[in-house]
Amino acid sequence: MNIIKPQNLKPDQLYISDFSILQKDEKLSYYNFKNESHNNVSANEIEFEHCRFNNICIQNGKLEKFTFMDAVFDKCNFSNTAFSECAFIRCEFKNCKVFGCNLSESRLYNVSFTDTNAGYISFSLTSIENVVFKNTILNNSYFMETKNKNLYFDNADLTQSRFLKTSLKNVDLSNSKIEGIAITAEDIKGAIIDRFQASDLLYLLDVKIK
């Protein structure tokens, strides 16, 4: 597992700013956003480089064509917010809540989710490369036609998650929860599981256990 961390992020060198005053087509570098709450926000085409987001709450928002490069999100709540056609490059989510988020048609490159609640998250038509979900809840998550390369699940909860036209070849699921996972035999082919998880996938064989 070789996930590149955010680069050039030094807290004492970041400017303090307010998320609510941002305008379309803005590009912000070396800023620290913290302790803000904004619901039902709608914004698009804003770029962030070398930024930190601490205790930011944006619920039920609509953020389109945002770019986050070398960014850290710590204790943030983005529940039910849509990040459509966004890019996350060298980003970290730590102790966050992205429950019900929609990341459709977005790109994630060198991104880590740690101790995060990502239940009901959607990665429909998303490109994922060098991404790890560690100690993260992904129950009822949705991966539809998701292109992935170097995808890692480390003690993730994938209960009742759905994979459609998303190959998990060479993806290690052995220490994650996969009860009730919905996937085709073609998409699970080549995945790594342990012998106890095999029973959760017997339905793919259309057999009955006596």
What does this structure look like?
With 210 residues, the protein is an all-beta fold. 2% of the residues lie in helices and 37% in strands. It has one helix and 14 strands; from the N terminus they run ββββββββββββββα. The protein has one helix spanning 185-188, and strands at 15-16, 27-29, 31-37, 42-44, 47-57, 62-64, 67-74, 82-84, 87-94, 107-114, 127-134, 142-144, 147-154, 162-164. The strands form three sheets. Strands 1, 2, 3, 5, 7, 9, 10, 11 and 13 form a nine-stranded parallel beta sheet that branches. Strands 4-6-8 form a three-stranded parallel beta sheet, with no helix packed on it. The chain is elongated.
Summarize the structure.
With 210 residues, the chain is mainly β. It is built from one helix and 14 strands; from the N terminus they run ββββββββββββββα. It is elongated and about 55 Å long.
Keywords:
210 residues, 9-stranded parallel β-sheet, 1 helix, 14 strands, mainly beta
Biggest beta-sheet profile? 9 strands, parallel
Number of helical segments?
A: 1
The helix-strand sequence is: EEEEEEEEEEEEEEH
**Which structural class is indicated by helix and strand composition?**
mainly beta
Mean pLDDT: 92
In helices, the fraction of residues equals: under 10%
